[in-house]
Amino acid sequence: MQPIQLFDLASRQAEWLSLRQEVVASNIANANTPKFAAKDITPFKAVLENSQTTGMARTNPNHFASNDLGSDMNIETRAAPLNDEIGRQVSGNSVSLADEMVKMGEIQRQHQLNTSLVSSFNRMMLMTVKR
User: Are 38 and 94 in contact (CB under 8 A)?
Assistant: First the structure.
C-alpha cells in the first residue's frame, strides 16, 4: 500500500510554515536594528513547482503531480519588497511591523487550515477502517 500523498503535502507545508514563521519572527526581533533588511522565503507554490520530478502526468493543471522532496525543499530566504508606506527608514531598516504582523496572521490561518484538513482526513480514514 502506498502512502497517502495528502499527509506528505501537509507535512511539507507545515515545515514551510515553520520556516516562514522563523524568518518573520527574526524580522520583528530586528525591527529596531539599524540597516537590517526585512526577509521572506520562497512562496510555497514555487517550492512545490521547483521540486517536482518526472513522474505521473497531470491531466488537469489543478491536479498535483507526484514528487519526492525528501528534506530538501528548495526554500530560499530573500529580501522582502520594501513597503511603499514606510520605505527604508532613516536608520536603514526596512522592517514594517504592520506587514510582519499581517504575515504572522496569514501563517497562523494557514497552519490552522492545514491542521484541520489533516484531522478531517484522518477521521475519514478511521471511519472507513472501522466499517
Answer: yes
Instruction: Name the residue range of residue 56's domain.
Output: 5-130
Amino acid identity at 93: N
Amino acid in the structure at residue 76: E
Q: Specify the pTM.
A: 0.70
Nearest to 50 by CA among 60, 42, 58, 38: 42
Residue-wise pLDDT tens digits, 48-92: 777 654 345 566 676 655 443 334 456 666 666 665 555 566 677
Task: Give the residue among 3, 31, 7 at the shortest CA–CA distance from 121.
Answer: 7
Overall number of domains in the chain: 1
The neighbour count for residue 114, using CB atoms within 10 Å, is 18
What element of type H or E holds 77?
strand 77-79
